[in-house]
Amino acid sequence: MPSICFYFQVHQPYRLNEYGFFDIGEHQNYFNTSLNVEILNQVAEKCYLPANETFFQLIKKYDGDFKIALSLSGVLLEQLEAWRPDVLYSFRKLVDTGCVEILAETYYHSLASVYSPEEFIYQVEKHERAVLKLLGVQPKVFRNTELIYNNALAKALQEMGYKGVLAEGVPKLMSTDSPNFVLHPFEQYDFSVLLKNYQLSDDIAFRFSKMDWEEYPLTADKFADWLHRLAGNSETINLFMDYETFGEHQWEETGIFNFLNFLPEKVLSHPDYSFKTPSEIIDTYPLRGEYHVPHISSWADTERDLSAWAGNSIQKEALRRYFDLGEVVKDTGDLFLVEAWRKLSTSDHFYYMSTKTSSDGEVHAYFSPYKSPIEAYNYFIAALTDLECRIERTKLILPSEGVVFNE
Amino acid sequence: MNSPNSPVQGKSVLVLGWEFPPRMVGGLAIATYGIVEAMSQYIKVHLIIPYKDANTPEIENVTIYGLNDLALNIEEKQLTSLLKRQTVISTFTEIHSYPAVYETGVEIMEVVEMEIKEQKIDKSFRSHLNVFKSEEMYGKSLWEKIPVYTEIVNEIAAFIDFDVIHCHDWVTFGAGKRLKESYGKPLCLHVHALETDRSHKKIKNRIYDIEQSAMEMADLIFPVSQYTKEQIIAHYGMKGDKITPIYNAIEEKYIERWRHKIPGRLVTFLGRITAQKGPQYLYDTAVKVIDAYPDVTFVIAGTGDQLMSLIAASADKQISKHFIFTGFITRNDVDALLATSDIYFMPSVSEPFGLTALEATRAGVPCVLSKQSGASEVLPSALVADHWDTDLFAAHILKLLSDEPFRQQVIQQNQEEMNRISWMASAAKIVSTYSIALSLD
User: Is the pLDDT confidence value at A82 over 80?
Assistant: First the structure.
């Protein structure tokens, strides 16, 4: 009795200003607010509002038989709250149907799980508080930034009280033949890992509108047929992708919303098939094998590892300097500086510094607001240098003056 | 107005320029303007440039012709009658577009390759002239512009009284040669930069050929430094007696010092980040300085094909904390950057002049310069080393960082030396060289 598990990632970073030498020490306007508002508005109109409406109608129509999961980063929730409360409300409305599970993640959509366990826990808890406040639910299942995953993360998540985690289904790392079963982490027999079926997920997320794809055009009929063919040897087919797939990466003109509208009916036409949320999948299916990731897997690039953010020397150096500053900035006791530091942790900043070429490079360039990886690096490093200057200055304050907040 | 005592009273010069304010890619515009304005005190100047508009400065005793103006104002008929004969335009392969001379914050121009093709100048000439309507000075159409410039200059010259031809850099040299052939007037070449500076010493490409053949035909050559004179003798086979160095100068300007909030001292590099500017020597020197004096940041201003490897090198060695890369920097920001710098560092492999060294001096910054530069001649108190001698560069920078009275002394001496040069003095030297060598009087 196979289930379809839809999970969509909803995230927009705070993109940086063209912050440079003459800004360092003068002001802390690291982020390009007008650009961020502009992009948020654009994505809201093209994706969030129409997609929310589509899913809301589908949930109503199938009366509990159609379900999805969403993960909204904290920095997105913040931006929606500030600039598009109407969109935040429409997400809340979706969650209130009871058919949308909200997943846990790091508030800043960061790489903290890789570089700073302490900071990771802080950011996850902060995200949990924001989700509870704004969406009214308590997440039970975790998904890390871009499905970054390894054995150690699974261990930590279980200790933090989660019942499962989402990960990329990298074939060589799983003991089963397909990602279509619930697995357990390495030597951890009471915790669930849901693996992305990247073949079928990417058919929608990346190939849907590719005219040179042999399967173009992808119809709901055809896709449901592919799903149905897996009936004998699958328990959960996990379709994980960016929420922005609907209307933003794949424009409305490609027919993506029509595809969505027809898909549940086609899938449910097979009596054995149903839609389930990650929590339901975990509660329903036994653990069928092991997902063993000693290093790191993710859903990014063809390597499906950390190289999208830490693949070249400038990324590594930016990461090193960034996380080295963590202790120092927290020691100042200046909450504004700490918050400024945290906002810079968003993984997108490092993603834009990638110098990969070919099709992965094109994806990096598609997302980047800057002309080149060099620009991405220079603005980031300048902002970091400003933080360093401010940290230095706090050390000049005599203890008797107590904690002094900047500005 | 002509000074009554001018040795060239009543004479006039036809100046061929390419960059001119407000069209500035690099410092060629500033230098051409500085020289032309100062020369106009002594001699009537006719200046032909590709592009002229309302923002082009008006100078007394200087008549400026812009080819874009002709493109806009001349009707087809007039144009074809102006061009009585048909002329062959050839366009060439292998051009890297022309790099700027003093280029601070100039974006590196793309390498352009064009197929060899021959086109007749005929009724479609007007469309050729249209290339000058674009604001781009170099770029892909450069090889189309040069022959059009040459031909139209040759035609315009028929309506101008002039006694001597004065060309600024290789882009105009072809036109200079043509004028000498057509009108038999003496030809002077002003050399702001050589292809052997931009590429490498052994280069023998199309641009080199243009420079070399023009030098052969020239009556006088005015390089911007003794260093460049030596380069011309060594690599272009010219004799020294027709070569007179004419130093660039800088306009006076008060620049207020300010303190950047980055802790520690700032060592600044300004310019295109290309092999000519010695980025490898810059980096090697920086590593040595940082090792001995950690409280220092190298500010690297400008962009170019070596920028990424420079950034990556500092990242690999985990010393990125000691570098700030500003990327493209506007001309206004150049003074602001220099006004907060503690040391100016120019390790160029080959620098015909290096106007930024004067800009640094004017902004109160002591210079550490490559010996292979013109600027080190006009600033003899600047600290110099051969461009490859990163030990000596590092020693100079460390000395300046650790000995403030010495640093102040270098600033003061450099500024005194800078005050000894001026565009007026350079112009006076040009016109007196005209008058003696060309027997104008």
Answer: yes
Q: How far apart are CA A221 and CA A91, in angstroms?
A: 28
- Find the DSSP H helices in B88-164: 125-129, 142-156
Q: Are A352 and A376 a contacting pair, CB within 8 Å? A: yes
Q: Which residues contact B166 (CB under 8 A, 6 or more apart)?
A: B13, B14, B15, B16, B188, B190, B430
Q: What is the pLDDT of residue A394?
A: 87
CB A389 within 8 A of CB A24: yes
Residues of B in contact with A381 (CB under 8 A): 320, 324-325
The 3-class secondary structure across A204-224, one letter per residue, is: HHCCCCCCCCCCCCCCHHHHH
Average pLDDT, chain B: 85
| pLDDT attached to residue B71 | 54
For residue B297, with 0-12 CB atoms within 10 Å meaning exposed, 13-18 middle and 19 or more buried, which class applies? buried
User: Cβ-count burial of A362 within 10 angstroms (0-12 exposed, 13-18 middle, 19+ buried)?
Assistant: exposed
pLDDT at residue A175 is higher than 70: yes
pLDDT at B290 over 80: yes
What was the pLDDT predicted at A272?
95
A300: left (phi over 0), alpha (psi -120 to 50) or beta: beta
Mean pLDDT calculated for residue range B400-420: 97
**Contact, A288 vs A182, CB < 8 A?**
yes
pLDDT in tens, A274-309: 999 999 999 999 999 999 999 999 998 888 899 999
* Structure tokens that stand for B3 in this block: 């000074």
Strand partners, A7: A69, A240
Task: Determine how many CB atoms are found less than 10 A away from the CB of residue A61.
Answer: 12
State the Cα–Cα distance between residues B417 and B412, nearest whole angstrom: 9
Give the mean pLDDT of A336-345.
96
Give the residue from B297, B318, B332, B338 with the most A CB atoms within 10 Å of its CB, the best one to mutate. Answer: B318
CB contact under 8 Å between B263 and A392, yes or no, is: yes
Cis ω before A217 (30° cut-off from 0): yes
Q: How far apart are CA B157 and CA A156, in angstroms?
A: 83
Whether A378 and B325 lie within 8 Å, measured CB to CB: yes
* Tokens of residue B256, six digits: 């207020």
Return the pLDDT at B202: 82
In 3D space, the residue among B270, B101, B109 whose CA is nearest the CA of residue B191 turns out to be B101
Which residues in B lie closer than 8 A to residue A320 (C-beta atoms)? 318
The DSSP-derived string for A36-69 is HHHHHHHHIIIIIHHHHHHHHHHHHHHTTS--EE
Confidence of residue B70 (pLDDT cuts 50, 70, 90): low
Residue A252 has pLDDT above 60, yes or no: yes
Measured CA to CA, the distance from residue A351 to residue A380 in angstroms comes to: 12
More confident residue, B198 or B221: B221
**Which residues of chain B lie closer than 8 angstroms to A317, CB-CB?**
314-316, 318, 320
Question: Domains in chain B, ordered, with CATH?
Answer: 12-249+422-437 (3.40.50.2000), 265-419 (3.40.50.2000)
